[in-house]
Amino acid sequence: MSGGRDVPAGALRRVRGTAVALEAPGAQLARLPESVAGLRGLRRIDLDDNALEHLPAFLADLPRLHTLLLYRNRLSTVPPELGAAPALKRLSLGANRLQALPETLCDLRGLRCLNLAENALTRLPEGIARLHRLRMLDAGHNRLTELPADIGALTALTDYLYLNGNRLRRLPPELGRLRRLDYLGATDNLLTGLPDTIGDMASLRELRIYRNRLERLPETIGGLARLRELHAAGNRLRSLPESIGRLEGLRHLDLRGNPLEHLPEAVGGLVNLTHLDLRGARLRRLPPVLAELPRLQKLDLRWTKPDRRPGWLGALRRRGCVVLE
Predict the structure, then answer these.
(1) Which segments of the protein form a coiled coil according to its record (predicted)?
(2) pLDDT tens per residue, range 24-79
(3) Is the CB of residue 250 less than 8 Å from the CB of residue 272?
(4) Measured between alpha carbons, how far is 170 from 163 in angstroms, rounded to an integer?
(5) d(CA 194, CA 285)
(6) Proportion of the chain in helix, strand, coil states, percent, rounded to 5
(7) DSSP 8-state class, residue 117
(8) Which residue, 56, 119, 179, 320, has most beta carbons within 10 Å?
(9) Are 175 and 197 in contact (CB under 8 A)?
(10) pLDDT tier at 6 (50, 70, 90 boundaries)?
């Protein structure tokens, strides 16, 4: 057994005498001890919430390292050598001071989960398509102004793609190739529209696009047959496409803070809808089909001013639906 002589007490977890994990979150480490290079059996390093400013290149030489957690440190660069780490599957670099990433990071062909959130990144690496096993990507709360078209090649993305809190004005049409993706978050950007190809994302269950500048939703959104939640609050939507009624699995529809002037009769097709938020809409008329939604549990109409209050609101209340006016 060698290495690890100057790591924090109790930070090493051993199995049969071999150090397999280094876990020292919040230990205020300013550097990673050189002795860690000798811990060849390490599989997991958790150094979240420390004060690291640099990463040693020797991390790439740890043959069994599959998890490297470095959230909330002081890193401004990532050593290009890290792209040669042979077993790395999970990498967390969130909440650091990164403005760019080395292209070699895309050589981590076995990577499954990549957290880049809360940095100052202005772009993602051009070779990101090489991360063909990636299942989860968090690039939220950076300074991204565009996404590489190659992001559509990440067809193994299944769990989530977080793009919240950037400066994106558009999403590339290649995004529609992510047909296995479950969750897409693109809130708090500058989006003025969604690509028509979004309807090809057949596995999508949750779509969060609130606080953008969207003026319309594409007709193809009706192709999202598995969608359960659509959060589109705080945009500039004045109407919804007729295809919205094809989202038969939709349970939660949040449209608050939009200048909605019209709801299509097609919303009557949302037979599994439980929550509908229309706060602040400019609807002069509420379509009677809302009263026929069989599973509606909450209808929020606060700060709307229809020309007249429809009588069927009382019927909704009597059957147990919460109606807020």
Answers:
(1) none
(2) 999 999 999 899 999 999 999 999 999 999 999 999 999 999 999 999 999 999 99
(3) yes
(4) 12
(5) 27
(6) 20, 15, 65
(7) -
(8) 119
(9) yes
(10) low
| Residues 6 and 33: beta-carbon distance below 8 Å | yes
Closest CA to 287 of 248, 239, 247: 239
What is the CA 83 to chain-centroid distance, rounded? Answer: 24
Amino acid, res. 61: D
Q: In angstroms, what CA-CA distances link 80 with 55, 94, 100? A: 10, 17, 11
Contact 247, 268 (CB under 8 A): no
Q: What is the pLDDT of residues 79-111, one digit of tens each?
A: 999 999 999 999 999 999 999 999 999 999 999
Where would I find the beta strands (DSSP E) of the chain? 12-15, 18-23, 44-46, 67-69, 90-92, 113-115, 136-138, 160-162, 183-185, 206-208, 229-231, 252-254, 275-277, 298-300, 322-324
Instruction: Give the whole-angstrom CA distance, residue 315 versus residue 320.
Output: 9
d(CA 216, CA 276): 18
Region 237-325: CATH code: 3.80.10.10
Which residue in the block uniquely carries the two structure tokens 């037979």?
271
**CA dist., res. 250 & res. 321, Å (int):** 17
Q: Which two tokens stand for residue 118?
A: 């809360």
* Displacement of CA 195 from its chain's centroid (Å): 17
Asked if 190 and 165 count as a contact pair (C-beta separation under 8 A), the reply is no
pLDDT level of residue 1 (50, 70, 90 thresholds): very low
Whole-number pLDDT of residue 7: 74
b/e burial code for range 202-230 (CB count within 10 A of at least 16 → b): ebbebbbbbbbebebbbebbbbbeebbbb
- Helix, strand or coil, per DSSP, at residue 253: strand
